[in-house]
Amino acid sequence: MNVSVFHSVSQSSLLCGVSSFLLCYPRTQDPSTMPLLKLPAIDDATRSFAEKVFASEVKDEGGRHEISPFDVDDICPISQHEMFAHMIHLETQSTPTERRRKKRFFGLKTISLSVPQTETSSTKLSLIDEYISSSPTYQTVPDFQRVQITGDYASGVTVEDFEMVCKGLYRALCIREKYMQKSFQRFPKTPSKYLRNIDGEAWVANENFYPVFTPPMKKGEDPFRTDNLPENLGYQLKMKDGVVYVYPNEEAASKDEPKPLPYPNLDRFLDDMNFLLALIAQGPVKTYTHRRLKFLSSKFQVHQMLNEMDELKELKNNPHRDFYNCRKVDTHIHAAACMNQKHLLRFIKKSYQIDADRVVYSSKEKNLTLKELFAKLKMHPYDLTVDSLDVHAGRQTFQRFDKFNDKYNPVGASELRDLYLKTDNYINGEYFATIIKEVGADLVEAKYQHAEPRLSIYGRSPEEWSKLSTWFVQNRVYCPNMTWMIQVPRIYDVFRSKNFLPHFGKMLENIFMPVFEATINPQAHPDLSVFLKHITGFDSVDDESKHSGHMFSSKSPKPQEWTMEKNPSYTYYTYYMYANIMVLNSLRKERGMNTFLFRPHCGEAGALTHLMTAFMTADNISHGLNLKKSPVLQYLFFLAQIPIAMSPLSNNSLFLEYARNPFLDFLQKGLMISLSTDDPMQFHFTKEKARFLGNNYLEEGPAGNDIRRTNVAQIRMAYRYETWCYELNLIAEGIKSGE
């Protein structure tokens, strides 16, 4: 029987030096020293190839129709006969030792599924049958039909390529693990156990690398309390090359002797980035990952066909839980559009009835009452409808991010946006705070719904943090069903063109320096210190389809040297945001404060290098649509189980039609995805903690699932976990068999 594999565009002329580098995979260290992980420096051939790929991607990122270096062409099969002929040709050129190693590969039957043992320290992996019989976890999993592939093992690529692919994927996972642990962001236990198994080292649970979140407020506790803020440490701060450095005192600052925190290494970051660029553009890696993703999709369909009734039976036997009363968290929602259209319209009319004669707006000519403001706009709130409010995104906004942003202006009037949807205005954001508190009240009433609205810090002025935190505290914008995110729009070019900023470094300083100051001396910044307790992470937002044409490299200007009006690239923004968050998290963890996750908008449009950079730096992302264009990145996101908050309704009005959205495809393959609203005002017409998910929610697989709380079938959890382990084990076996 002929088995087809898929052929991608050849780049052999550039890859000859890359393959040898990928084979030189690293040996990692003990998890306790992972932030200092040593990986071999990349060679000139790899760096040159990566730069060519990056330059090509930047040049063509606006609407490419031909096959990119990252795509796999689905209509180019190579028959098994051709593949076998290729292997025979290579066989005649190999040494006796290589031939023996290949024979071991060809004699390899189906790889048995091995899963990590449950102990906190182990170098072993257990066969699935042993694990099921000995694990207390699997006693709660009903019997179900598993999909098993038997016969001679074939990866779809040659022996040499399979070994190279496994080692490349292994190194890529090591890179992500390193950057997540350095910044106190999350890397799953399961792949970490497999990586240590490959190294022949014991995996040791180390909670020192975990992020720190502010615990939920206890009943009667004041969320705005300031009498227990930590004392001043007296540290000094200085920004160097776009990164904040922390010094124990003035003398150390004068000698440039910073505290021993994990400061970023730009050269190492660029080497790791170039490695990933080379990896995701390699033909054999694309072929292998494409086939594995196809297999994952097909395997899920078979699993569903065989076990859907058993899963449904589990759910029916689960008392008091269904879709409506299990916890749901909207992890991607913008505060300025967190209400639906009807809610905003109702509030505008109500405010006019109550405050018609109140001075609410300051124009260049004079201060205006609410009644005078509407008269100036030549309208009356009584006549407004959802249609005339015109905040709903439709087909006219497709591929038009500029028109989409205009939808934040009710009735097309920026004055109403400033009055109702801004935190800094004549009435100190009172209306906006009231709307958000009403949305929060709806969440509390619904009981099982939670949200993480995003508020903006632009980096135009260092006073932004003080104003935003004062708004938050004075208006007491707290809801037990809400936590908050900070979004940073990538609009340096706008500020520079208006001469608001001298250089990009000043923007970074305005964004991060106030947070460092409040961390060192909370008592001098009480409002900001309280506000930061309710912040979970940072986001990077703007239209990804806009590209600067800049390739981030060691030759790129330092932030203080970036004085041009052109916007830096997405990768440039991402690196400096990650670098400062990494240092900030180390300082805050040292003080026992909550840390922050980096959770950017990524992969909605633009170059695939956005997703590659996020793989290195982001705890999780929003959108991720462009993963469908790169099988390698998609497979890596699966292996690392990087969370992706997807918004099909939002995408339908901006970048991708609903029917073409990859949400269902990603779900079938087993990527970690969630549904999010993005902007309910524009896209919607209608309106996590241990006690919500169970005490073992940090565990992976069925061990971490409490069906009584999550309403997710244990059969589904077991299937997902075993499938994940199988793919990771495949990489481990590929490396070990090639040694």
Give structural notes.
This protein is of the alpha/beta class and about 750 residues long. Among the domains are: about 400 residues, TIM Barrel (Alpha-Beta Barrel), CATH 3.20.20.140; about 110 residues, Invariant Chain, Chain I (Irregular), CATH 4.10.800. It is about 45% helix and about 10% strand. It contains 29 helices and 19 strands. Strands 9-12-13-14-15 form a five-stranded parallel beta sheet. Strands 16-17-18-19 form a four-stranded parallel beta sheet. α7 packs parallel to α29 and α10 crosses α25. The longest helix is centred in the middle third of the chain and has 34 residues. About 45% of the residues are buried. The N terminus is likely disordered.
Strand content: 5-15%
The helix count comes to 29
Radius of gyration: 27 Å
- Helix/strand-derived category reads alpha/beta
Give the strand tally.
Answer: 19
Write a compact overview of the structure shown.
This protein is an alpha/beta fold and 739 residues long.
Question: What keyword list fits this structure?
Answer:
alpha/beta, globular, 19 strands, TIM Barrel, 29 helices, 739 residues, 46% helix, Invariant Chain, Chain I, 5-stranded parallel beta sheet, 4-stranded parallel beta sheet
